[in-house]
Amino acid sequence: MLQCFDEASLLTNLPTVEEVLGNHEQLLGTDAIGYRNHVYRVVNLCLAVARDNPVELEKLAIAAVFHDLGIWTNHTFDYIVPSVALARAHLAARGRADWSPEIEAMIVDHHKVTSSRSHPLSLVESFRRADWIDVTCGLRRFGVPRPFIATVRHSWPDAGFHWRLVELTADRFWNHPLSPLPMAKW
Hints:
Elements: H1 15-23, H2 25-28, H3 32-50, H4 57-66, H5 70-73, H6 80-93, H7 100-109, H8 123-135, H9 146-155, H10 161-175
Helix pairs in contact: 1-4, 3-4, 3-8, 4-7, 6-7, 7-8
């Protein structure tokens, strides 16, 4: 996948992502396009980070669509627990509760600054790296070539997503100066 930097090689429509985002479109409001694009950037970057490791695409789609969703469903920047709860309910409703530990680890660790020691070569670590690549706009690359990151960002434009994160961070810092980034961990 990394040898091909064209838009045709990217995943652009995942049924689970479309269903979940469709169900939450009103809550997402003006952030719907930005969040959708973030989800697809993370999915495609995760596939690039994972390289030759097998990726269970449905697990990736579920983790990606729910990983930040608690921001909007619970109106909080301390969103990890609500996001995990949403993913867990989704999995249970579809008879996939056995996937919960891995999906939860992907959501809980996605803002971990250091590598996931408990899952060093797993989808959990690939997902963490992919989210960092996107959140840092490619400043952290984890070996993913810049042209591929640029292709992903061109295919799925920011649409205000990163500015929204800046706004949420500033608001959180103003209201909770001792805990400005509750989702981050070492």
